[in-house]
Write a structure and sequence with these properties.
The chain is built from twelve helices and 23 strands. Helix 9 packs parallel to helix 11.
């Protein structure tokens, strides 16, 4: 699918999509809770649909009631001889569900599609073997074949590439027979770990840690079914807020200012760039955030713990006077595309100069020209290119625009609602 974006004013109010990071964790927690859990305000994207499919493959029943999803599960009652799981293109789901699958005695095959087939998964092997599972990958890639039962114990984890395996272990090990100790080195994306611990607490599971270096989990815990609200997605909101900052005034509703989501830091970046940012609080703990156009200046921002913000920040920096510096570019190699190189290439096609200097990305702001670009089947690249197109001198034509289905299926419709017709 191809989408075209022309220079225009963006103005209006849009509700943030449901956070797929929160939703996938909540679906797996509901799978592990014996009984029925209600996930409120869950809007589906391809990643959350994959997570629901995985829950059903494990025997859970899923029912939709309005905007809510009811998940009824008895995980350890699964009597299938073997289980096959398809994780779509979700790296989080793949790394998170592998330790969970190792809780069962029967063999489980885990596969995926698209770019996920080329993303590294070998880091799951050694920790799971140390904790009692039998596991094999295809030379560090999918598919994974795993069989338990995961007994608990001690394991070491390198957190430099991703915190997603740690999330899976934190979710699975409370159900192991023995207590567990995880020693984690070079942990990135600590906010995502906080997000996991916060969600576990809501489902009655406790985790202790010492400065994110040593995690201790009691075994034989129980997940308690609950009603859980899936909060709005700061990642999806980031491009909407940048759209308001560079092209008008946009208000994004259904955001939690106290969220553990790492991409909440987009507000810091917007303020550093000189954006006008306002907040409206509501009585239910949710807020509406407004970002409005103003004279923008170059900024320096460390996105090491929030790498998914890079595409939106590049769109922002493209409209700032001077050279902006975004740190943490090394975190971008194993996303849906190699995002550092993809951003450099595709924004370069629009006349934006991007230099990669070690762990830094340096973006020179200026005129954004029109042109034909490609998302490389990366949802965040597609959204960032569309956002930059609002300030382009000519039409921006984006191929593989359907990639937004991964996290934000309504993105193009919402962008059209915001566009002021001339």
């Amino acid at each position: 699918m191809t989408k075209s974006v022309k220079s225009s004013t963006a103005k209006g109010r849009i509700a943030a999509p449901a956070s797929k990071s929160v939703a996938q964790r909540a679906i797996v927690a509901a799978l592990l809770a014996r009984g029925t859990s209600t996930l409120r305000n869950l809007r589906l994207c391809s990643d959350t649909q994959a997570a629901l499919g995985v829950a059903q493959a494990f025997g859970a029943k899923v029912a939709q009631v309005g905007a809510d999803y009811l998940i009824t599960s008895d995980f350890f009652a699964n009597r299938a001889d073997k289980v096959a799981l398809f994780c779509g293109e979700s790296g989080l789901l793949t790394r998170m569900i592998t330790p969970v699958a190792a809780l069962l005695p029967q063999p489980v095959k885990i596969s995926g599609g698209g770019s996920l087939a080329a993303r590294p998964i070998g880091m799951v092997e050694a920790p799971l073997r140390n904790l009692g599972a039998t596991i094999a990958t295809a030379g560090g890639l999918l598919p994974i074949r795993v069989q338990g039962r995961l007994r608990g114990g001690e394991a070491s984890i390198d957190g430099s590439v991703s915190s997603q395996l740690l999330t899976g272990l934190l979710m699975a090990l409370p159900l192991a027979q023995q207590p567990s100790t995880l020693r984690v080195s070079n942990l990135k994306s600590k906010p995502y770990v906080d997000l996991t611990i916060e969600l576990l607490r809501a489902f009655g599971v406790s985790v202790e840690h010492d400065r994110y270096e040593v995690f201790r989990l009691d075994g034989r815990q129980r997940y308690t079914p609950c009603s859980y609200n899936v909060e709005g997605d700061w990642s999806g909101a980031s491009c909407l807020l940048v759209a308001g900052t560079i092209a008008g005034s946009v208000t994004v509703e259904n955001l939690n200012l106290s969220s553990a989501q790492a991409d909440r830091e987009v507000l810091t970046a917007l303020r550093l760039a000189g954006a006008q940012v306002g907040v409206e609080h509501s009585g239910d703990g949710q807020s509406a955030v407004t970002a409005s156009q103003s004279a923008l200046c170059a900024f320096t921002f460390d996105a090491t713990d929030c790498p998914d913000l890079f595409p939106a920040l590049v769109a922002l920096a493209s409209c700032c006077n001077g050279v902006s510096v975004v740190k943490g570019a090394s975190r971008l190699a194993h996303k849906e595309s190699n995002r550092a190189l993809t951003l450099q290439r595709e924004f370069g096609a629009l006349g934006v100069k991007i230099a990669l200097c070690g762990d830094e990305m340096r973006i020179t702001g200026g005129a954004i020209t029109g042109g034909s670009v490609c998302s490389h089947n990366d949802h965040r690249i597609a959204m960032a290119l569309a956002t930059a197109g609002l300030r382009s001198c000519g039409e921006v034509v984006i191929s593989q625009a359907e990639s937004v289905e991964k996290s934000y299926p309504d993105f193009w419709e919402d962008m059209e609602k915001l566009r002021v017709k001339s």
